[in-house]
Queue: 2 jobs
Job 1
Amino acid sequence: MSGQPAAARLRIGIDTGGTFTDIVSVDIVSGATQVTKVASTPANPAIGLLRGVKEILASAGAATDHVAGLAHGTTVATNALLQGEINSLGLIVNTGFRHILEIARQSVPEGYGNSYFWVKPDRIVPLQFIREAGGRLDFRGLELRPLDEASVHEAARYFRARSIRAIGICLLHSYANDAHERRAAEIVAQEYPEATLSLSCVVLPEYREYERAVTTLVDAFVKPHMERYLNRVHQELGSGLQDKPFLVMQSSGGVASADQVVRKPITTALSGPAAGALGSAVIAEIAGFPDLVTLDAGGTSTDLCLIEGGKPQVTNGGSIGPFPVRIPMIDIETIGTGGGSIVWISREGHLKVGPRSAGAEPGPMCYPNGGSEPTITDANLVLGRIPPALIGGGIALDVERARGGIAALAAKLPGDMGIEQLASGIIEIANWNQANAIRQMTIQRGIDPRAFALLSFGGAGPAQSAAVMDLLAMKACIVPPNPGNLSAFGLLAVDWRTDHIVTKVMHEETIDLSEIAARYAALEREAVATLERDGIDASRIRLVREADVRYAGQSMEVRVTASGGAFDETFLTGLIGAFNAAHLRTFGYNYAGEQKIELVNLCVSGFGLIERPQLPKPAIRFDRPEPKGKRAVYFGGFQDTPVFDRAALPPGGRVNGPAIEMSR
Amino acid sequence: MNIHSAAHPWPTAPLREAVAVDPIVLQIVEGTLNSIETEIEYAIERTARSPMIREAHDFRVGLFDRYCRKLTGRSYSAMPNAVVRDFPPETMKPGDVFLMNDTYLTEGSIGHLPDLCSTVPVFHDGEVVAYIQAFGHHDDVGGRVPGSMPGSAATVFEEGIAIPPVKIYCEGVRNEAVFTIVRRNTRVPEMLSADLDSEIQACLMGARRMCGLFERFGREQVEACFQAILEKCRDIYRNELLAKIADGEYAWEDYVEHDGITDPKLHKIALKMTKKGGKITLDFNGTDPQSTGPINWPADYADGAFLIKWIAPILRNLADTPERAAEIHVNEGVCDVFDVIFPPKGTLITPEWPAATNARSFVLLRCLGLLAGVVAQAVDGRMPADQETIRYTGFFGTDLDGKPFLSREVLGGGSGGRYYADGNDAIHIVPDSRNQPAEFTETRFPLLVEKLALRTDSGGAGLRRGGQGYEKHYRALVDCRTIVTADRVRLGCYGLNGGKAGQPFCVTVDAEGEGYDLGGLVDGEPVLKGQVVRVVTTGGGGWGDPLQRELELVLRDVIEGRVSLASAEKDYGVVLKEGDGAGRPVIDEVVTRDLRAEMTKARSAPLPMIDRGEGYEKMLRGEHRPRIR
């Protein structure tokens, strides 16, 4: 960034979650960090955001003048999708394709025979709000029949009469030729100026009409929400801060300015977890374990993410709730167990842990006004693995109530199980569940977990993760400092990012290099223009070319990096080589030299490099730390176990377990 | 059959009192077995090469105890019994792997030859304690036609190579002789051997994981858990599902319409179910003789263990809620609840070698609906109506660049109505199997998709309507040929408890011109450049009396184009009129009330439990519709 006053040296990261808003500030010059946490304000998250910024400025002893920029992770888009009433969304498709959403890809969820008792959920747009437009392109983008403008006028009027304000337009082969979609948009805008439009040729110019339509609709749906929210933030920030660069985290693991985000808000759909993964990647590098599985265990669920070579894995598609979306996103797998997972006895009399959860409301039995069924957290408390009061707040936890709940379960099980014996069994089941989930995730991606370390954070993770590490024979278990602020910290460690894609299917034998060159050049112009709009200096812009490639005849593409150099024969051989190597890595085999390839999508990612915060590296002193106290903790029997304060642990210090380490 | 029954050439589990199991270890073992199954599937999905495995997800994994009892139950799978029959466990060595696909020598576990199956024994303390198994639908195992599924085969010799259980790895060393023979008998040797590698390696990984469980918890504890897991399934069936079926005898039959060689004809599968207490006996006597063509299913082995595990899951529909149904895993424990009586050799489900079997899926799928239909009579119709969601359609020829092309697609159909919900529109029964995007089809093949829609009025009318099938129009951009492999071309999917049958499947060539319909087994009907081929797929059967359907649901169906105005009136007794001026119709309540009353009065008999639709009557009268033209 240019033109910053010398005094502007604080970068602030704000991660707004459902319950808390975490704030981190880093002094770009000294590397000094501050962290804090305020209650989120779900009705208007902008209020909590500003409160947090003020608080962190106060604790850093700084004024608004000192702020160099703000980076924000938000769940506004996700929440709008998951909680919002989707009742004002419309779609325009080609004649003959009105049932595109109803048909989807004809697939049923996993589980044999589910098609008998599965009930297809409602679609994102009810059938009556999907209108057809005449006209047709072929896959090369050639016009077979001209756009029937009258049908578009009619559709626009239909939407206006019914106050359907957010409208997606998805016409066949618009990735090859956007003329019909653009013209349709003009007509709708003219008939119905108040409408918010998303065009599939802008949101996702990639083949596969169903996925493109849903992605476009999700974008159209979140657009008004995002616009309103970012306007509020702008107002709340007030004169001192509203002119500072304000960046929003995208699901891809890069940031973009608020202005960019409003144009294509779907890119922020999974903003929060992406920030956590990036924060983990920074810690991973510092800790010397660039290959890790991150485990973020919350109250109701646990997020897993793979970091390889210091980089979180990015996937080209996933889903937000029930909606499949095709945008680059950090590859995060969510499993349904967390600290609040309920322990219960099934109809068959078997002990079960999860997937039902007591969540934050009513919460575990031991919480004030807690629930009536024991949870994993209650089992940890009974064993003394977590302290009898919530840290910081000093809220006492009700150990006796938790014991009562577990005793009641034990009475219903065969055998004569003691309370602690059952509690440690519950923890063991939970640990195996996590270990099995990690195994599945790594095998699916062709990775052996034994070569990876486990990085654990979140309220319900670290107390159990050493055991999970053992079950999987992983290299190490890392618990980062200030784990609650990992996401907010991650916000400060990422570059600007903008992704551009276009579908152009070309068989190896008929590849036209000049055509490829022209298409990449267009994508690169788009990427540079986007970054320059955010005020990024040309010297800080990096462009990465990628391509989706498959063996001719297959329908699954692999994304590979293409050379940034000239478009000559070596460009192509390099690309094919990279594809064969990636195929081998991903699937365990390739057809190098045997089968021809097909180019499918060309992609360009533009990065605007930031100054990475340099964390001061503490000097290692191999001191023997002193426990601050002792507590009775159950390890096959209660033992007097030393308790250490994380903040007081000397860097490089060693402790022989069992021991308890407390941190915020 | 009984999970403890004796007199088999494989070890039988000893009868024993219910043993006490540690409830914690039980959960860990059960969760880990499910995880191992998933891990093996992920590994195969990632490394296999056949499109049928990778894209259509046609492969299955199974974990079994030392008595060949299936321990997991998310889906059906093969069985290791035939391997153990030919290679007693005491002769097995660590590192041994077995291969088989012979439909007549695999104890009923392999239905057609493309399903090559690998089996890996799991060792603990020097003895076999479990088996891991995987099979996939491989693209080609030889025979008369590419793909090894000749629709007009009369013998197994036309279908490809048949492999009885053999050792493909002996103590970790590959049996090159077997490999060489297999590779020589397929049109795609590289792909097939890579698929086998993928499946075998995945099973070996699973075996190591299973071994880890035995090491961690000891044989006695793990086996006690296995027993408890099997008993849980058995008890859920007995106490929760069978409890809803009144004791008694119930009988029904269903039909496959053609076998690829003889004229369209009703090939009957008959079933008499006797329910008494905690036991169900399934008697298939009365089933028609084996067919000339390849629809035979050799099921009469191992006391019907495979058949039971294949069709028993349909009873999950008796669970209190659909959510509960989805929780019930069906493992070998279910075999304790069912006995099967097979007809003598020589019928559709007891065929004699070398009758062809490659299209046995018609019979296999009908058996699901057959049991559902029998059970429906015992539970006041509280079962789902019928569905058919698998068939192949496609085109082949020479594309615009002069290269040969073959486009094959599985188009799903509507599922049956249920007492709690309408059937689903346009789904396919195999989880995760996907249709082809129009933009993919048009890029790859000389075809233009002119329409991809739900087929109006295809779902059977009912209080809960059957799901809609597809209506898909392809315009050929070159002269080419079309292929079809489909059942339910004449008979609709049956309606239940007063619901109507859905519309049958149909392919029409030159739909915009003269238009003529094809039958269900077509090997290459010519299509001219510019002609439109219309494919309409089956709607699900309806459930319950259509005259009871809520008016607002009928109105919504009409507005959304799922039900025509004519059908609303004729099938549902609902009349609509011009609405508020916004072009939306409303219900004419007075006329509707009168019409429904009149239609109810005009009924001469109570509504039938099962409606097979018009096609059935026509076939009985001999007016079946062979290929028109």
Job 2
Amino acid sequence: MAHAQQQSFWSRYVFSTDHKIIGLQYLFTGMFMGLVGSFLAYVFRMQLAFPGEPVPLFGVVTPLHYNALVTNHGAIMIFWVAMPILIAGLGNYLIPLMIGCDDMVFPRLNRLSYQIFFLSTVVILVSLFVPGGGFGGAWTAYPPLSASAQYNHTPWGAPLWLIAVALEFVAFLLGGINFVTTVMNARAPGMGPMQIPIFVWMVVIASIVFMASVGPLVAGAIMLLFDQLLGTHFYDPKAGGDPILWQHLFWFFGHPEVYVVLLPALGIVAEVITVFSRKKLFAYKTILYTAFATGIISFFVWAHHQFVAGIDPRMAHLFTITTLIISVPIAEMTFAFIATLYGGSIELRTPMLWALAFIAEFLVGGVTGIFLGANATDIYLHDSYFVVAHFHYTFFPIAIIAGFAALTYWFPKMFGRHMNETLGKIHFWGTIIPFNFIFLPLFVLGAAGEHRRIYSYEHFSQLFTPGLQNLRVLATVALVVMLLFQFVFLYNFIRSLFAGEKAEENPWKANTLEWLAPSPPPHGNFAEMPTVYRGPYEYSVPGRPLDYWPQHLPN
Amino acid sequence: MSASHASEFPVPLASRRSATGIPTGRLALWWVLASEIVIFGGLLASYIMFRLHHPHWADEASHTNIWAGGFNTFVLLTSSLFAVLGHQAAEQGDGAKAARFLRLTVVGGLVFLGVKAVEWRGEISHGFTIYRDLFWTFYYTATGLHGLHVLVGMIVLWLVAGDAARGRNLHRVELIGIYWHFVDAVWIFLFPLFYIAR
């Protein structure tokens, strides 16, 4: 008997082909890796603020530790937190529900995708503990440092890191093909292209951009793995190779990747702000077309990462122009969101706070990006803490703020219970305020010329600048405060799973199809498969008694 | 779906819908090929950029075996013809005939890999190893990656043929055929770039 129960647990939660279980597997793995990535950040920030002193829960940080911590913090936060939570987790959970069908079109492929992703997670975690330690050549893995153990001192860490990233790519390629095919073919009757919720569109566009940009890096990763393991010379200048080739292949993927995670985050924000301002999403088509434009332009901006790598200055000018151009569609989308809020009856529930914070904080990231996209200013700011502050003002809103907006918004649907609103708000302010105190000082440090890859400034008297040490300490203290506030979230999350107030089907009075299904949705999602009669954002339509008009209701 | 295949895995409604009118399997296959195109595209674009900056690669390229490459081109194209004939048979519902043609396609793949093995062996024994020059590194990487795709294609062809012989999943005959044409098309790029161009 016990055996039969055990089997049903395994087939139900571990080897399930149900898109919701797979989505939650991705989501929980991503959240766990978020804790790992945060811990790494905590350790190296402590080292920067209090150089040489033992860090509580870690010990003394050696230079090799430091490099491995920074590298794996970056890689984990992007590939094992932002990607699985925003795209694979939420995409898997929500796409079939939002387009009104029972599952993905390839459920077993979907399971395989998670299994490969899980394997990649194991490999990256193991790579931190192998002889020589984890890879320390930055998440960008530039050769020759990454190509030869003679330079990076991590004969095991470097190849394992690369294999983990490659496995992760395979998982997301399989997942992306599944997403795109599902949305193309499995939509509910009546759901035309312009009735698809923006979040679903964003995941589809992101999946296509990922698919089209990652290929050259897959080829590049094979070449780098050959350099590491066979001793070939693809990236070795003394044998006819070229390290800049890797930079091109990496950033041809790496910059579109920013938009791969940004677009789903914008999709989340679009869903949340319409529901909590009870107003139709302003300019649905404009948002959609600007997302297409962003996806396309993102393929023509990559070399702005290489202004100091010795590329042709004429090429640098071209990439400056394309980089500045890509801020136009993103700005347009932001304006559309603000126009949606304008005149709405705004309800400041926790998800809405996160969505509004996304717009405000991402704006800082976008505006500071202009300085880095322009080659003249980038040459000064390159590889300084200004860059670190800039991309944290983009990635933190994307992965963390939008992630929390989504978790708090869809929690009642996923688990059939509400999260505690007061704890949610405490967690929100306890995250947002320290976040700004971490990264605003880094802008100042970077503008003062502080280089971003220094293990201990005490080793370089000309870089130490004692006057700036207070800012380093401020950033670290703010980080610790922010991390402590995450326990409020964890407590709230776990407590609400079991003891939260019961949620009905449609607690937010939203229009999209996932709110038609029971909370949590059973296997197969809908008691009766829905038909779609209108777009997803018909709020406060004049002449209707209710201020929302779900997609599945006949006229 | 034939009753014999209604085994333990229930096919969801999602897999049976077709909002675009294109069968889901074919649609997904095109996306697979799109992602494959950018993988080979990245590798070949890197090769071409290097080639333009290394005039001496023309001398290295003259040591590749153009006759073996030419013969292999013929073999692959012929095997693609068998894949087409297999598809035609599957369209007519003749699973056994489709399976025979698919197995002939597998034989084509085997001959291709056999010739490739003899070719590599000759080159390596004459000192043209992966380490000799970056040209040869690219040569072995690109043809090796392509060979891997041939191998995977052969395995899947064999499985689809086994199904087709029992009259199951005949729509997959077309899909694996499309994949095989893609493998063929990649070779059509590799052959001139690595063997012919001087």
